[in-house]
Amino acid sequence: MSLWKLVRLNFGRHPVHFGEVGIGLEETAERVRSDTLFSAWITAYVRLFGTNAVEDLLAEFRASPPVRMSSTFIYQQWGERIIYYLPRPFIPPHNYPTGDDLNFAKAYRKLEYLPLKIWQRWYQGQGFTEGDRLELEETANSRLGGNQRDLHEARTFEYGKIYQKQTLPKVAIDRLTQATNFYHTGLVTFEQAPHHSGLYFLLKFNAENLELENRLYAALQLLAETGIGGERSSGAGLFQVDCWSDLPPDWQQVVSFQGGNYYCLMSLFWQGSFASELRHELENRSYYEVRERGGWIGSPFSGQQLRRQNVKMFIEGSVFPFVPDGELADVTPARFKSHQVYRNGIGLSLPIK
After folding, report:
1. Which helix (H) or strand (E) holds 342?
2. What order of strands is seen across the sheet that includes strand 349-352?
3. pLDDT band at 183 (very low <50, low <70, confident <90, very high)
4. How many Cβ atoms from other residues are within 10 Å of residue 255's Cβ?
5. Residues 51, 53, 56, 60: is their CA dihedral positive or negative?
6. Of 233, 243, 300, 298, the residue nearest 48 (C-alpha)
7. Which residues contact 309 (CB under 8 A, 6 or more apart)?
8. Integer Cα distance of 196 and 330 in angstroms
9. With contact defined as beta carbons under 8 Å apart, do 141 and 109 qualify?
10. How many other C-beta atoms lie within 10 A of the C-beta of residue 92?
11. pLDDT tens profile 89-101
């Protein structure tokens, strides 16, 4: 038995800064990935419940994860509807047309995230339709015609308009020499009017565990008050937990889909080693991208500023013919002795066909 939860985070007018390996402070992502969410959540957890409690929890995650979490993705409140965007799988949907129309292919590739309604139809339902093709062609050629409007009605092409990126100039002052350093930092703000937007993620508990659920909820409330991501000293990353609930019917249909023969990642995924048969599947029947994950240690028990070891992980949207299980990756730097440092590579996936 598994128990799913849907969690929505409302950042209001607070900006966010979610950095990525290989980009400077002037760049920021619009969402936070599952390993960063897990690390921030564990930091809040240890502040509330102490080191013994978090060591016991991490031991559970290493043995048999009691809960899996997706990365965060954008949602938008559109009238009475809530539109959830999911990563487009790295495999074309059923009935996807073949051909050499570059404008059409370019318009399709721009759809990095799909509304839940379209995602489900393309990858669990009837698949790609002739109406979808015509609508994408019209969009690629910047014209609107009288063809089927399913994609526009689902707000498939509105993803990039839901949030705004801005770059702010800042000055860092050295505490010893008083020397100044001018730099820019990137921030993201989510749409508030006329349509509210924010971030959501999924939780999948292996079994009903009310004590763990209550503790995680309390830790998330603390994280909401302290913020997530960078630039927290400037007020970035603060949020409210707008929703912690069972899945609504449309989501229940997606997670309980029985006709799938592939699995699409909704989180990052890392596996220390693959058996030979899984390695064969990975090389021949999987569709994926790998991203290097790194960053600094944010331990509340050490004043050391050290970079954790980098680790390469499969990213959201990767598709496998097996359930991507995953595990915690030990990324403790050699010079760091306070405690072990982990990145969450435990996979959460949805079935597709």
Report:
1. strand 342-344
2. 319-320, 262-265, 349-352
3. low
4. 14
5. negative
6. 300
7. 294, 331, 332, 333
8. 38
9. no
10. 16
11. 999 999 998 877 7
CA–CA separation, 184 and 167 (whole Å): 6
Q: Give the amino acid at 169.
A: P
| CA distances (Å), origin 248, targets 150, 169, 187, 202, 210 | 22, 42, 32, 12, 20
Which residues, at least 6 apart from 304, have a Cβ–Cβ distance to it below 8 Å? 297, 335, 336, 338
Query: What DSSP letter does each residue of 136-181 carry, written as one string?
Result: HHHHHTT---SS--HHHHTTTT-GGGSEEEEEEEEEEE-TTT--EE
Band the pLDDT of 139: cuts 50, 70, 90.
confident
User: Hey, how many other C-beta atoms are within 10 angstroms of the C-beta on 290?
Assistant: 12
Q: What's the confidence (pLDDT) of residue 304? A: 59
Model confidence, pTM: 0.90
Tokens (6 digits) for 233: 């000293």
23, 186 contact by CB (below 8 A): no
Tell me which residue of 3, 39, 1 sits closest to 18, measured CA to CA.
39
